[in-house]
């Protein structure tokens, strides 16, 4: 049904395809009087205002002082200053109140302001720099520490090759999202999240599906971080503290950090999280080079535990097998373990689901491409070196969370505590955007909840935060196979947002863009949208128009992404089925799953 809606949108709604020869048919409605998700706004109108906005931003960029120096990149300001004018409210993040009084609104929830005030209000929301976005993109607790495990389950050759391919394609997906965003976002019609892209290209139902899937992914990501932090604390306490309490502690911390409502305020926290993760990597690399693996927990989530249990099973004298490596697939006859490992590696590139939210708060979204490619290069280089290093020294004993795979207790504690701090920052970021998607796109649209700029909206936000974190904890805690759950989330959500949706959205965008011929487009004076044809003829012209080979490649890319997601879903579900068959602990017990001797 979503595809049919998308094709209909590409062909055009006859009610909106008004011939320029009869302008009296057009009833011009100013953008400030439109609903945020108004189905009557056409692609041509979105694109017209987007080009206008890019011109304004480019002119402003020429007059702004250029920030230079390595310190400005390593420690970027959380925002850029915006010169105020009588029509420009004080700058603030999305969802923040900008004055002492709540502005009046019309029936659609829009501010009753002039056209100039409407544009300036939109501009005032955009304050983030590209360097700050770099840190937001690289704030990922699960990504780096599972790369060694992913390489091990695939073997040296396939592991490095696939991780490289995933990195390149993740960068290409980010490029596609950036191109689409620049062509559809404007001060008049601001894009705020991933679902808005689906809405403007394919319609209402795809928007709700994307928002629902993004909500599920962010909810599960928060839950996974709560559980991993709980495991870390239980290991630090030498399993003397009830494991369920260890997890609940971090759910309670989420109640507090979740009260931060703007990404702008996460800027310096994201900066700190990146350096915390680097410290964990350096500590882990130094320790595993001079100490044996943590044999006792290898059965829980190591390379051998996933692909060949006999390779980590001790003999009658309690002596574990020597470290081994595989140049190819460890077990070509069974791909379940290898694909499950690959899904862990996919998490390293899972930031694309938040790219639209990051661009929405940027002063100059055209610069996002620098932050995105810089982050992808950083992630690939650092994570690849770290993953290969861990697998080289620990082989089949490489653990899914590498810092928990070191054997000296003191260094375990250091890694766990740093990971806890980094993890709560990442969980706060995911929870912040997850609640925004849930609130702005579902509760406001479907149940008429008040906007977050109102007092009631802020009260409801404060109430939703603990409920959200509690649900995230319950979902993750009730599933005994932690790493199987990671794989399921990666297959059903991460791959879609990072690899499936971008080429699908790009197809809709470039077909519509290429279909616009001479004499067609949006007239801002009359509100008339002129289209000379509709249907198959228009779709065909759009597909085989400018750079048609890009559309062909996107079709192939989309098919490959969906196939990979299917394989990942199958392997992860099989892994979880096996986990439920065995008697295993979940996070509602006092005994930690890492405590095999308790």
From TrEMBL:
Source species, domain of life: Eukaryota
Record-annotated membrane-spanning stretches: 132-152, 158-178, 241-260, 266-288, 334-356, 377-394, 414-439, 459-479, 485-511
Compartments, as annotated in UniProt: Membrane
Keywords on record: Membrane, Transmembrane, Transmembrane helix
InterPro entries: AA_transpt_TM
Cellular component aspect of the GO annotation: membrane
Region Disordered, annotated ranges: 80-111
Molecular-function annotations in GO: L-amino acid transmembrane transporter activity
Main location group: membrane
Domain Amino acid transporter transmembrane, first and last residues per copy: 127-507
PANTHER family in the record: AMINO ACID TRANSPORTER, AMINO ACID TRANSPORTER TRANSMEMBRANE DOMAIN-CONTAINING PROTEIN
UniProt record similarity statement: Belongs to the amino acid/polyamine transporter 2 family.
Identification of the protein by name: Amino acid transporter transmembrane domain-containing protein
